[in-house]
Structures are given as C-alpha cells and as structure tokens.
Amino acid sequence: MAADENEWLTLIEDSLLKSDIGDNSYNAARDWSPSSPLTQSHKLCLSDEHPFKDLKIGNTEDLSYITGRNVCCECGKSRKYYCYSCCIPLEMTKGIIPTLDALPLKVDIVKHKREIDGKSTATHAKVICPSHVRIFIYPELPPNLLDNKEENIVL
User: Fold this and answer.
1) Pair 70, 79: CB distance under 8 Å
2) pLDDT digit string (tens) for 39-88?
3) Which of 48, 79, 137, 141 has the most other CB atoms within 10 Å of its CB?
4) Residue 65's CB: how many other CB atoms inside 10 A?
5) In angstroms, rounded to a whole number, what is the distance separating the alpha carbons of residues 44 and 9?
6) Do 95 and 145 fall into the same domain?
7) How many structural domains are present in the chain?
8) Do 90 and 33 reside in the same domain of the chain?
C-alpha cells in the first residue's frame, strides 16, 4: 500500500482507532510495528500492557457483601445490584454504585430489539447518569437524529 492510502488515519483524533487484531489474523501481514508511521502517530492503539492505568477505578469490595437478590422499588422485580428494567440502583447499592449528574455530552443508545436488557451494557450508562443517557430500541430512533444539522452526532 502506498503511504498516501493511510494518510487519512493521521487526521483522526487520538485513541479513536483501537484494535485487538491477533497475530494470526488476515491483517498480520501489515506493518503494525511500534516504529511504523501509523503507530508513531499515536492514532492507532493496537495493544497496551496496562490499558486501565489512567482510569480511576473505585473499590468494589462492598459489592461482594451483597449475597442475595433484592426487589426493585419501582417495578418489584428481583435483581442483584441494579434494576436493568428501570435503570436504577437498588436500595442496597445506592451508596456503592457511582452516579453522575452530567456527562460531557448527551448519549443516545439504540439497541437491537432482541438484545437482552440483563446482558446489555447500555443499561450501565443509564444507571450511572440517567439525565444524560437515553436508550432507544430499534426501529425507534432518537428524535431529529437524521435532520438535526446543528448538533454533532457520533455513530
């Protein structure tokens, strides 16, 4: 490949491209070495020995003391840490699960109709910051998604 063909990658913001391409994959023949121009541009992150080093991860020890299931105060269903139907923490975990008043941007998540709520990570975002996260089930889409030209939309 000519160098010009990869030039567009240098215009992308740092950390937007991430890959976990294995050694035996079809891309193994490409130059992914640490000295390649794409890797040196810091636009391409292929692997990191410490991917969570900059995250401030809180202590989760208190969650280990919760052994049983509890009833959601809104829907009455049995859950362990949070209600994935109502997207709220349970009484036992209200002081343990972190919550945010705001995010740097509003988040709209469009889920597939067959995605199971109890398995979906979309719910985690809504539990942590309900005021800035909305969940839609396809074919329902966020209002004005396609015709709003004044907002930045990332897909």
Assistant:
1) yes
2) 566 555 555 567 777 888 888 889 889 999 999 999 999 999 999 999 99
3) 79
4) 8
5) 8
6) yes
7) 2
8) no
Do 26 and 89 lie in one domain? The reply is no
This prediction's pTM: 0.61
Domain that holds residue 118: 80-155
Residue 56 domain-assigned?
no
Max Cα-Cα span within the chain: 61
Same domain, 151 and 86: yes
90 within 8 A of 79, measured Cβ to Cβ: yes
Q: What is the distance of C-alpha 40 from the center of its chain?
A: 26
* Dihedral angle, C-alpha 41, 104, 90, 92, nearest 10 °: 80
Pull the structure tokens for residue 1.
Answer: 């490949």
C-alpha distances out from residue 137 to 5, 35, 132, Å: 37, 44, 17
In the DSSP assignment, the letter for residue 29 is T
- Using alpha carbons, select from 7, 68, 70, 78 the residue that is nearest to residue 43: 7
Q: What pLDDT is stored for residue 145 in this prediction? A: 72
Considering only CA atoms, which of 6, 10, 17, 63 is closest in space to residue 44? 17
114 in a structural domain? yes
